Amino acid sequence: MASEADGDEGSDTYSEFIAKVERMTHVGHAGGVLNWDQEVMMPEGGTPARSKQRSALSSVTHEMLTSDEMADLLDRLDGEDLTDEQASVVREVRRDHERQSRVPEELVEEISQASSEAMPVWKEARETDDFSTFAPTLERLVELKREYAEHVDPDRDPYEVLFEEYEPYLGVETAERVLDRLREELVPLIEAVRESDVDLATDAFAGEFDTDIQEELARDVLDELGYDWEHGRLDTAPHPFSTGTQFDARVTTRFNPEDPLGALMSTIHEFGHASYTLGLPREHYGTPLGQSRDMTVHESQSRLWENHVGRSEAFWERFLPAVQDRFPQVSDVSVGDAYEAANQVYEDNLIRVEADELTYHMHIVVRFEIERDLIRGDLDVEEVPQVWNDKYEEYLGVRPDTDAEGCLQDIHWSHGDFGYFPTYSLGSVLAAQLYASADEALDGLDDELRRGEFGSLHDWLTENVRKHGSRYTTDELVRQATGEEYTADYFLDYATAKYGDLYDLDGYQ
C-alpha cells in the first residue's frame, strides 16, 4: 500500500526504498498472525511445524532488513533532500538495519525457533508447578539473547541493548530512575493503605460468575468503549494480549469465575492497545509512519483506558447497570461500591495481571531486577525461584507458595522478551501524563465519561498520539502531546491523591 511519504515529491531512490520496507513489514505482520494463532487457536501438537514456520519468517525479515540492497539504498538516501516524514522513516529503518546487520541470520533464526519451542514448555511447567522443567529452556534463551546483545554492541551493557528493542529512545537509565522512584514513593503509600482502618467494599463482586456471561459482558464493554468489530475480534488466551495492524487489531482476555473484575479490566486494558493500533494512519501502513512508536507509548494507551477510564467513578456510573443486567446477583451494588472494589489494594497480591494499580509496579520492579541480573550474568537461572520469592516478600509483603503463582506466571521470558517489563511501568507513568493533558484540553471530560461519550478522548489520542505512528522519537512525541518532558510527577500525584482519598490517609490527600 502506498503512503503519503512516497508520493510525487519522493525520489526514485526513496520509492525503491519504501517498496522494500513495506514488503518487509508485511512479512513481519504475517509472523504476528502465526504467533496469535499459536497462543489462541493452534492445536498443541502443532508446535514443531509452527516453530519452523515462524523461524523461517524471522529469517526472511532479517535478510530483507540487512541485505546489501537495503544498505545501498540507505547510503544513497544520505544525500537526498527528504521531507520530515521521509527522514523519520529512514531514521527508523536505518536504526533497525544497523542493529540487525550485526546479528548473524542463523542466530535470529535460532532465537525465533527457541522461543516458539519454549512456549509449550512454559505452559507445561506452569501447569505442573515445576520450574525445573522450564529452567533449561530459560537458560538457553538467556544465553541466546546475551549473544544477540553482544553482536549488536559488545562494548555496552547487554541488558541496555535488549531494553532498546522495546524502548529505543528513553534509555535504560530513565527506566531505572523511574522504577527506583516508584519503589521509593509507592512502598510507603502501600504500607499506609494496609494500615488504614477504612473498610472498602472489597466484596462487592464476591461469588461465582459464569464465564460465558462474563464473555458477554466483555463484549458489552468493548461495544461501550467503541471497539471496531469489523477490524478486530475477542478471544481467550492463557496470558491476555493484543496484536495486529490498523486493519486487524485483535484482543484476548481470560476469565475466572470468582473474579469478574479481573476479566473486565483485562479486556479494557487490551482494548487500549487495540485502539492505538487501529488508530494508526492507514495510508502509511507498511512503513514506520503507520506503526506504533514503542512499548512505552503502547502501554500508556492500555493503562490509560484501564486505569484512568475503566477504574474511574465516572465510568462505573455509566457501566454498572450493564454489569447488573448480566449479573443480577450484584443488583444491590452501588456505584461507590463498584468504584471501591475496582480500586482496592489487595492484601495478598501474587499475580501481576490481577494486581491492583499500586502494587502492580512492585511486580514490575521484581521482574526488572531479576531479568537484568540474568542477562548481566549476575544471577543463575536455578536461583530465580528463590530470588523471586524473596523479592516478593520484601516489596509486596507476600511470598508465593508455588512456582506457578511465582516465577512461572508470565509468558514473556518464554518469548525471549528480556527488557520488556520496564515498559509496563514507563507506560503507566506516561498514561497519567497524557490523561492530565487530555483532561485539561477537553472541557468536561469526566462528565463525558459519565455519559458514555468517549469520542472526544479518542479524537484527542488520535490527534496527539495515534496519527503520528513512529514519526517522532518517544521523548519528542511526549513533548508534542503534553508540552512537557517525560515525567513521573503526574502519575505519583494521581496515585497519592486517589488512594489517599479512598483510604483516608493523612498526608496523601
Defining traits:
509 residues, mainly alpha, Neurolysin, domain 3, 2 domains, three-stranded mixed beta sheet, 3 strands, 61% helix, 3% strand, globular, disordered N terminus
Describe the protein's topology.
Blueprint: H1 12-40, H2 47-66, H3 68-77, H4 84-100, H5 105-128, H6 131-152, H7 158-163, H8 172-195, H9 211-225, E1 234-236, E2 242-245, E3 248-253, H10 260-278, H11 295-309, H12 313-326, H13 335-343, H14 360-376, H15 384-396, H16 422-441, H17 445-450, H18 455-464, H19 474-482, H20 489-502
Parallel strand pairs: 1-3
Antiparallel strand pairs: 2-3
Commentary on this structure:
The chain has 509 residues and is mainly alpha-helical. It has two domains: 4-140; 172-502, Neurolysin, domain 3. The chain is 61% helix and 3% strand. The chain is built from 20 helices and three strands. It has a three-stranded mixed β-sheet with strand order 1-3-2. Helix 8 packs antiparallel against helix 14 (360-376). The longest helix is centred in the first third of the chain and has 29 residues, at 12-40.
Short précis:
The longest helix has 29 residues, at 12-40. The chain starts with 11 loop residues before the first helix and ends in a 7-residue tail after the last helix. It has two domains: 4-140; 172-502, Neurolysin, domain 3.
